[in-house]
Amino acid sequence: MLDIGASITVKLVKAPRPNTSYRGVVDSDDGTHIVIRAPWSGTPAKELAGVSFGPGDTFVEHYWRDRWYAIKEVYGDDGALKGWYCDVTRPARVEAGAVVVADLYLDLWMSADGSTILRLDEDQFAASGFTQRDPAAAAHARRALDELERIARTSGFSMLHRPLHDH
Predict the structure, then answer these.
(1) What sections of the chain are H helices per DSSP?
(2) All domains of the chain, ordered by start, with CATH?
(3) If pLDDT is split at 50, 70 and 90, which confidence band does 160 have?
(4) Start and end of every DUF402 domain (predicted)?
């Protein structure tokens, strides 16, 4: 298990696209579920469904060693929850001071008030050839996206909510 409060690198493997790495702090690790807090690391700022992501934002990132997705709570610089950005990934691995997850193209966005739920990048997934290269993993990815959408539409992700003022 990772030490709470330790600095850690998050590595998003996006082959054949460029990989992404950034630093965060371990919030918790129960042996299966890892939570990391990290500042926005992308440039430039981005917009999705009328919500801007950029400098000053904080992500509370939930990774599992046994699930095919990661869920990121997105907070603005004012501490207000913007929503949840969900990545379909292979289960997380911990190695040499890093949490490593392989991104599988598919994503889901849910706004903080639950009024917007969007399945994202299904066109990229289809065009990637991933289904032909690794049919079993592609099937896991599709099931993971369906599960994320089901959670979003029924109970939402508030069970993961970790307000910024807790730290």
Answers:
(1) 122-127, 130-133, 135-154
(2) 7-162 (2.40.380.10)
(3) confident
(4) 33-150
pLDDT of residue 165: 56
Task: With CA atoms as reference, report the closest residue to 71 among 54, 87, 90, 50.
Answer: 87
For the segment 60-88, what is each residue's pLDDT rounded down to a tens digit? Answer: 999 999 999 999 999 999 999 999 999 99
Please tell me the distance from the alpha carbon of residue 17 to that of residue 129, in angstroms, as a whole number: 13
User: How far apart are alpha carbons 68 and 66 in whole angstroms?
Assistant: 7
Alpha helical stretches, state H, 41-134: 122-127, 130-133
- Tokens 């709570």, residue located: 73
* 3-state SS class at 162: coil
Alpha helices of 4-56 — where are they, by DSSP H? none
Q: Give dist(CA 62, CA 104) in Å, integer.
A: 16
What is the model's pLDDT at position 167? 46
